[in-house]
Amino acid sequence: METCQTLPALRAATARLRAAGRRIAIVPTMGALHAGHIALVAAARQHADAVVTSIFVNPLQFNPNEDLSRYPRDEAGDLAKLREAGCDIAWLPGVEVMYPPGAGTTIEVTGPTAGWEGDARPGHFRGVATVCAKLFLQSGADVAAFGEKDWQQLQVVTRMALDLDIPTRILPVPTVREADGLAMSSRNRFLSADERARAPLLIAAMRRAAGTIAGGAPVAEALATETEALAREGFQPDYLALVDGPSLKPLAAIQPGPMRLLAAARLGSVRLLDNIPVG
Ligand code: AMP
Fold first, then answer.
1. Does residue 124 carry a catalytic annotation?
2. In this predicted structure, what is the pLDDT of residue 29?
3. What pLDDT score does 244 carry?
4. Which of 23, 55, 76, 249 is surrounded by the most beta carbons within 10 Å?
5. How far apart are CA 13 and CA 272, in angstroms?
6. Low-confidence ranges of the chain (pLDDT < 70)
7. Which sequence spans correspond to the domains of the chain?
8. 140 exposed, middle or buried (CB, 10 Å; 0-12, 13-18, 19+)?
9. Residues in CB range of 9: below 8 A, 6 or more apart
């Protein structure tokens, strides 16, 4: 595995791959890698001949209330995991490489950015869209793998690539979960032992809501019942919502098209985020 820290180094490495006729996939990450990230590398490998994984804790997607300095970092551990996963290039740009002094362009996506994480984290998707566009253009990737775990992000990035005519195909990868159902996340390490034991109650409540909604129960009632159940278990639910899959528009009743149940809830100091298909 080659490690690149400057844009000329990355461009030289990807140019060599391209000259050899190899299709390139990129897996954007913020590091602190777990099995969910490794599933993205494996999926990317199935759709391309060479995989670039970026590790960049993007300051632009953190808002001032969020602690960027608290975000977990483990570069040595990450590189070992990527090597073992068969990643070809680790792309590790510093902040000054990604955003050189004077950088003044950001990307504002409308549509799927409305509501949910867009409301909870003002400016977050501007940061995500901007860094992802840069990563696609830096790598010239044919394919980019994103986790369904961050459903709204997946839709925002898909919209952005389409709108900007960036020829990188977005590959969605199903959420990887712990044995008890908790969606893997770099932030789970901040759960106390007691919180970690209670955390799977979130996906349990979501599965109950999805089941009763798919079975024809009134949507608002099913969502309210499970939101209350989560609050009783010590969660601070932010939202539990039924939405149209691609647009993220809330649904008051089931529809024939793709539906997703979205949830965000705080447990202690950790904001848990999850989603599942409905029907
Ligand atoms: P992050 O490093 O948290 O920014 O995530 C990088 C990529 O990994 C994003 O596309 C996420 O959606 C994806 N990802 C994070 N957790 C999981 C998971 N449990 N299963 C699948 N993909 C994930």
1. no
2. 98
3. 98
4. 55
5. 37
6. none
7. 2-173, 186-278
8. middle
9. none
**Centre of ligand 1 from the C-alpha of residue 13, in Å:** 25
For residue 195 the two structure tokens come to 């919180």
Question: What distance in angstroms lies between residue 36's CA and the mean position of ligand 1's atoms?
Answer: 6
Quick one: which atom of ligand 1 is closest to the CA of 148? 12
* Topology, domain 186-278: Pantoate--beta-alanine Ligase; Chain: A,domain 2 (3.30.1300)
Residue owning tokens 């001949």: 49
Which pair of structure tokens corresponds to residue 235? 């969660």
Residue among 33, 124, 149 whose CB has most ligand 1 atoms within 8 A, to mutate: 149
User: 89-91 and 50-55 as β-strands: parallel, antiparallel, unpaired?
Assistant: parallel
The reported pLDDT for the residue numbered 65 is 86
Question: Rg (Cα) of the chain, in Å, rounded?
Answer: 19
pLDDT, residue 67, reads: 86
Tell me if the domain spanning 2-173 has CATH number 3.40.50.620: yes
Q: Which SS3 state, helix, strand or coil, does residue 241 take?
A: strand
Angle at 165 between CA 162 and CA 169, to 5 degrees: 60
CA of 153 to the centre of ligand 1 (A): 10
Which protein residues are within 6 Å of ligand 1, measured from CB? 29-30, 36-37, 39-40, 146-147, 149-150, 173, 175-176, 183-186
